[in-house]
Design brief:
Helices cover 12% and strands 30% of the residues. The chain has eight helices and 26 strands. Strand 5 and strand 6 (93-98) form a beta hairpin.
């Protein structure tokens, strides 16, 4: 059975049917030696191919996993069959990530077919895909047939730049379970131009399904893939109800048919420029947990380095619990109440910082904490309140104990060494937070509580950030000074000083004249 070159022009749209493949020529082949420092990387690129259909060319990357499955490594000018790939847009250029090993169709060529140009340039005018000139290369008849059968566009006379006459096709999304054995798109290469992606990720965090002010429903989750990259997923209305019933924390799923959008950094703590919006047509199926995806990924900041970070940032922190404050309930004028609990953390930089936990759920989960425990906080919010302090609530942060990663073990070893040497860490460690209420064994507070309900502006800002419920009213008491008054709505005007007049005056000849009473005053 003869085969023909598959035109690269169809890359953005064409779906491969079963047993089909892309017949292309390698016009450049480069293999990389994996160095010792590369072994720690989860995604290792072993080879780079420049693939051509005789008219245009595109770059393809091969991972070490796919490369190891090759029966025979291809070389320059070989004609190969590509069974599957993922399209990735990098700096507005298409890059192919080969998902399966290629097979060699013909290996006797010593020159490239045609005069291919860069794919992006050719796509600017699809008429360039028409191959008029025959290729003057002596090859087998099967390869001549490959070139001769390259598809040509059909152009209608007078048509305004309508290059291809095709019957409209129904775009069919492949079922996600049929692709379960393939390699998946890394989260870190997702962007707003990525199409037809499938990711395999663990749900590292999920919130509750919330009701919005307009009566809709909202669900947010955080995902992490095998490369340790996190991304936020959001579900609205029907999708929130549908997938909220099946998604569970710490389970692994296959995700597809979502929309990749730019992330609003004001409302997310996930360190990713993009987020995924899932709708009721998205596909999510539980996958086998083979242990390749870690439960959490951290980017820890040492407490000693927090002093240089601006407020409102979200950071990951690992430390030793050195003090535990009282659990307190704050009554709001709206009739609701809010629970908070403070603890003090320190690490081997000889610095400590206060962490305030907001809400019943996160306080209940960490009620068991004791002095000397090592904890890791994911996505804590940094505040300038009382120097530097951290905030965590169930909406955006998570607290973990018993982790055995290198950072936690290092800090625990430092703490045990200090304790064995009889060092009083409370005297030696410098606190970045100016105050904290301590708790005795019997639960009595050693520091007096504030006698009033007055709030500082920084406290109000922190509280509004932690609540994450902008659709509700909040009431605060503030004692401060008015620094400026904007008169955009014309709430006041210069008035006449005449008794009972109060008409507006206008500046005139160094004074202020009133049209109402006809008098002029030195001021108003």
């Amino acid at each position: 059975m003869s085969q023909k070159l598959m035109a690269l022009k169809d890359i953005p749209n064409q779906k491969l049917q079963k047993d089909q493949g892309w017949i292309l020529q390698i016009i450049s082949c480069k293999e990389f030696e994996l160095k010792e420092e590369d072994q720690s990387k989860k995604l290792k690129i072993k080879a780079k191919y420049t693939l051509s259909d005789g008219v245009s060319f595109v770059t393809a990357m091969v991972s070490d996993i796919v490369y190891a499955k090759l029966d025979k490594a291809p070389k320059n000018f070989d004609v190969i069959k590509v069974d599957s790939f993922q399209k990735v847009f990098v700096q507005e250029k298409i890059l192919l990530m080969l998902k399966d090993p290629v097979s060699i169709v013909h290996d006797k060529l010593d020159a490239k077919l045609g005069a291919p140009e860069d794919f992006k340039k050719v796509m600017e005018n699809p008429e360039n895909f028409e191959m008029e000139n025959k290729i003057d290369i002596t090859v087998k008849e099967s390869i001549k047939a490959v070139v001769a059968e390259t598809p040509k566009p059909v152009v209608e006379a007078g048509a305004p730049k309508q290059f291809y006459k095709k019957e409209p096709e129904m775009k069919v999304q492949p079922k996600i379970e049929d692709l379960a054995s393939n390699n998946y798109m890394p989260v870190k290469v997702l962007n707003t131009f990525t199409r037809d992606w499938i990711i395999k990720a663990r749900v590292s965090k999920r919130g509750d399904v919330k009701t919005t002010r307009n009566g809709g429903q909202l669900l947010k989750i955080e995902l992490v893939d095998q490369f340790g990259t996190s991304i936020e997923g959001t579900f609205f209305n029907d999708a929130a109800k549908m997938f909220g019933e099946i998604l569970e924390v710490n389970k692994v799923y296959l995700f597809s048919n979502g929309s990749v959008k730019m992330a609003n950094k004001k409302f997310t703590s996930v360190k990713n420029d993009f987020c995924i919006i899932f709708d009721k047509n998205s596909q999510i199926h539980e996958a086998k947990d083979d242990g390749s995806i870690a439960a959490q990924s951290f980017d820890f900041v040492k407490i000693g380095d927090i002093q240089e970070i601006v407020q409102a940032r979200t950071i990951d922190v690992c430390g030793i619990v050195s003090q535990i404050g009282d659990r307190a309930t704050i009554n709001l004028k709206s009739g609701e109440s809010k629970v908070k609990m403070q603890i003090q953390l320190m690490d081997d930089t000889n610095n400590s910082i206060s962490l305030t936990m907001w809400g019943d759920e996160i306080c209940d989960k960490n009620e068991h904490l004791c002095v000397g425990d090592v904890i890791a906080i994911k996505s804590a919010r940094l505040s300038d309140f009382s120097g530097k302090s951290l905030n965590a609530s169930n909406d955006h942060a998570a607290i973990f104990t018993g982790l055995e990663n290198a950072d936690c073990q290092r800090i625990k070893k430092w703490y045990d060494s200090q304790m064995n040497n009889g060092v009083d860490l409370n005297e030696q460690v410098t606190s970045l937070t100016r105050q904290l209420q301590r708790r005795n064994d019997d639960g009595d507070a050693q520091a007096e509580k504030k006698a009033s309900n007055l709030n500082l502006i920084t406290e109000i800002n922190d509280s509004l950030q932690e609540e994450n419920d902008t659709d509700k009213l909040h009431f605060f008491f503030l004692n401060g000074y008015v620094s400026s008054i904007k008169n955009n709505e014309r709430i006041y005007y210069p008035a006449c000083k005449g008794e009972g007049c109060k008409k507006k005056v206008t500046e005139e000849n160094g004074g202020y004249h009133c049209e109402g009473c006809g008098k002029t005053f030195a001021d108003f």
